[in-house]
Write a structure and sequence with these properties.
Helices cover about 10% and strands about 45% of the residues. It contains one helix and 29 strands. The strands form five sheets. The chain has a twelve-stranded mixed beta sheet with strand order 21-20-17-18-19-16-15-29-28-24-25-27, with no helix packed on it. A seven-stranded mixed beta sheet has the order 5-2-1-14-13-10-11, with no helix packed on it. Strands 4-3-6-7 form a four-stranded antiparallel beta sheet, with no helix packed on it. Strand 1 and strand 2 form a beta hairpin. The longest helix is centred in the first third of the chain and has 29 residues. The radius of gyration is 28 Å and the shape is globular. The N terminus is likely disordered.
């Protein structure tokens, strides 16, 4: 009888103990400390606070200039919130961010975090807070459909480097994330520098180190005489576009056989422009052509169907034959992530792009008769 009484008495005691174990988790959710999720170069900042909390966000540049000030409501099922400034205001190293919930204010100064894919030496390198560990994620190929993630510890001076043991070429994507002791995450991404030029056109474009002036030269491949120079500034993302011009200032159209040199894009951006041929049929949707080799052909092409409105409707990408030729039909129904079916119409343009071993591209606009 006494044992049964003790057993009955133990039930509410256990129940209360279980409830007490649950109460702190509810309280923790209600008083969850604020943490930040930041993406360098973005006009928005993300945060994580108490569920349904009213959050006042103040975002300033390193010199104290106001980028954003506003009130936001955290979600009721996780406490997430997002605050966005007007472009061209974007998140940069040294920016100061504060988020106030009730009487508690959380401050963070954006740490120095950089990432540079080095296509010449096949390394990723950058800076982060000294002695910390960053999370590096990269695609192990220009058209890879998966990512590789590793962790890298910075040196005492804040520098870090990593050798992925594969050939980094222009266009390879990578990102690096740093997490603070309080759980904030800062991420930066980068693309290995590359240059794209178009046969018969004066325009060039690509990606290089942010905040520089790209200087690209076209030279006579035999004599080294400079035929044209193009200059273009890179923005915060590193993207640039410009035109080749003669010494008199007129535009200069690219021709096969010239040597292109753009050493501040990458020191190996120094190659002879190859020729490209292409033909497309509106009746059959067939496309064929050739990426000629001037010494740096990667034997790989990409072709896009572009309508008169400038929109792309379909694309195909594949290695070429050993001699650079390729042939395919946009009418085919392929189970291939490198192919999207399209109807080719008269008046369309097929943009044929030929990859170089450096990761740079030479392209040709092929009109569809």
């Amino acid at each position: 009888m006494l044992m049964r009484t003790l057993a009955r008495a133990a039930v509410p005691v256990v129940t209360i103990a279980l409830l007490m174990m649950l109460v702190p988790s509810v309280a923790t959710a209600a008083t969850r400390p604020t943490t930040f999720g930041l993406y360098l170069g973005s006009s928005c900042i993300d945060g994580h606070s108490a569920d349904n909390a009213a959050v006042r966000v103040v975002w300033r540049s390193p010199n104290g200039a106001l980028k954003l000030k506003g009130d936001y409501r955290a979600s009721s099922n996780g406490g997430w919130w997002t605050a966005c400034a007007q472009l061209p205001r974007v998140l940069k190293v040294g920016d100061q961010i504060s988020a106030t919930v009730g009487s508690t204010t959380r401050h963070l100064t954006v740490p120095r975090l950089t990432l540079r894919p080095d296509r010449v030496n096949d390394k990723f390198r950058g800076r982060a807070p000294a002695g910390s560990t960053i999370r590096l994620t990269y695609t192990p190929g220009l058209f890879a459909d998966y990512d590789v993630t590793t962790r890298v510890t910075t040196h005492s001076d804040g520098t870090w480097r990593y050798n992925p043991r594969y050939n980094i070429i222009g266009g390879h994507y990578a990102s690096a994330s740093w997490t603070s002791p309080k759980g904030d995450r800062v991420t930066v991404d980068s693309v290995a520098p590359f240059l794209t030029v178009t046969l018969g056109k004066a325009s060039f474009e690509g990606v290089a180190k942010p905040g520089i002036t790209v200087r690209a030269k076209l030279k006579d491949a035999a004599t080294g005489d400079v035929k044209s120079i193009g200059e273009a500034g890179t923005g915060s993302s590193g993207a640039f576009s410009g035109q080749f011009r003669t010494a008199l200032g007129s535009t200069f159209r690219l021709a096969a056989g010239l040597r292109l040199v753009a050493r501040n894009v990458a020191t190996d951006a120094n190659w002879i422009v190859p020729d490209i041929t292409g033909h497309a049929s509106a009746a059959t949707d067939a496309v064929n052509g050739r990426c000629f080799d001037a010494g740096t052909s990667a034997r790989f092409y990409v072709a896009y169907v572009i309508g008169p409105d400038g929109d792309s409707r379909g694309w195909a990408a594949s290695p070429t034959a050993d001699n650079g030729t390729f042939s395919f039909n946009f009418r085919e129904d392929k189970e291939n992530p490198w192919f999207r079916r399209a109807d080719v119409h008269s008046g369309d343009t097929i943009m044929v792009r030929c990859l170089q071993t450096t990761g740079d591209w030479v392209q040709l606009r092929v009109p569809v008769p």
